[in-house]
Amino acid sequence: MGQTTGIVLALGGITLANEVIFAPIVTGGSITSSFNWRIIPGTLGLALALNALEHLSPGFAVGIAWLALLTALVVPFGKAPSPVENISKALGYGTKAIA
User: Fold this and answer.
1) Which residue of 33, 45, 61, 95 is 20 to 30 Å from 6, comparing CA positions?
2) 30: Cβ–Cβ under 8 A, 6 or more apart, which residues?
3) Which of 21, 63, 86, 72 is nearest to 43 (CA)?
């Protein structure tokens, strides 16, 4: 296991938890309506690709892994909104305008 594998598995876990746990809580839907099964093979493929890239350029591969993790927290992927947006809605923070 390389340095990027843990980061990519965290990325996949956060995205999967967002699709399975946070999105149904916020939208009131069921798990099956928001689950995107392609997250699992996509995470494994990215882990393999970055592990191979890590043999050529370790710093570059680790940088890409961290950027992918940060991007997945803010940008919505799949059928659910972003994890940051879902968590903020679940905690009661909305998009209210400050007067």
Assistant:
1) 33
2) 24
3) 72
* The model's pTM: 0.81
Q: What are the b/e assignments for 10-30, b being 16+ CB within 10 Å? A: ebbeebbebbbbbbbebeeee
Number of other residues whose CB lies within 10 A of the CB of residue 8 = 25
DSSP 54: H
DSSP state of 4: H
For residue 67, CA distances in Å to 55, 60, 64, 73, 98 come to: 19, 11, 5, 10, 31
Q: What is the pLDDT of residues 22-61, one digit of tens each?
A: 777 777 777 766 677 888 999 999 999 999 999 999 999 9
Asked if 76 and 82 touch (Cβ cutoff 8 Å), the reply is yes
